[in-house]
């Protein structure tokens, strides 16, 4: 199918929240990892989200170029072409963008999409994330409000983060402490600043002990009940329908979480869960095995010529893509999106 239209993306997210499932949002940094993600979603019969981080976008532009906008535009163009051959709906997203990279990443991409929409074309991406977790909440939400207006013009969904995710991503590291848990007051402030759906569509990454990367058991204390409390706080504050879930929630730092923790978070309104570390390992592990098993073929040992069929990048690349695709299927099954692709 073609890349999801803005209307189809909103339908995907609404269906997920109503149906009690969520989409894996798979980080990619190359055509190979993109193709692996697409195959994984298709194998699972799941719609999905494919995203690039600031570092991934730089890498996609060329390691000596390091231009986030160039890499993002190239990624979106390639994805739009190859996704047509898969029977699932795919949305494109840009991942964590801190304040110092807004002018070199999200804002230029929003302008490109706004111009495309004015010409009657689809936006380049379906959603963008503003990561204001490192700034005070008031400033975070002020920037979010400005970006939400620009997203509405470009028919793009905004994702924000309220709270701090621990661990490390793209060179940014946060401590693991009590700041990792969003409060009821945080949730109410967010709804007051951005609305609860009536002023434009956005997704919210509230934090409940999340960390980027994978940590040993016992080092990460997830409390999905924080999400339930946040939804209930907004319902009560604004007199919404009892039992409703005003926020479309996002689960960051999902790699290494237990199936039970994931299921509970989804029950409370999570519609998107980022998966990066686990799929990176799933991609790289078959490459390591190929190199170790065929070291005398991939290397020209003792003056020999090696084996072209074994050092051809397609030989180990196919194994890597298959490994990553299988991990995407697993993520779809854990999030209960498998077999639920919309027509």
TrEMBL record:
It catalyses: beta-D-fructose 1,6-bisphosphate = D-glyceraldehyde 3-phosphate + dihydroxyacetone phosphate. Pathway: Carbohydrate degradation; glycolysis; D-glyceraldehyde 3-phosphate and glycerone phosphate from D-glucose: step 4/4. It holds the Pfam family F_bP_aldolase. Its EC number is 4.1.2.13. Binds 2 Zn(2+) ions per subunit. One is catalytic and the other provides a structural contribution. PROSITE patterns: ALDOLASE_CLASS_II_1, ALDOLASE_CLASS_II_2. Its cofactor is Zn(2+). Zn(2+) 2 binds at residues 131, 161. InterPro entries: Aldolase_TIM, FBA_II, Fruct_bisP_bact. One of its GO terms (molecular function) is fructose-bisphosphate aldolase activity. Zn(2+) 1 binds at residues 96, 212, 252. One of its GO terms (biological process) is glycolytic process. Keywords: Glycolysis, Lyase, Metal-binding, Zinc. GO terms for cellular component: cytosol. Dihydroxyacetone phosphate binds at residues 213, 253-255, 274-277. Transmembrane segments: none annotated. Belongs to the class II fructose-bisphosphate aldolase family. This is Fructose-bisphosphate aldolase. It comes from Nocardioides marinisabuli. The lineage of its organism: Bacteria, Bacillati, Actinomycetota, Actinomycetes, Propionibacteriales.
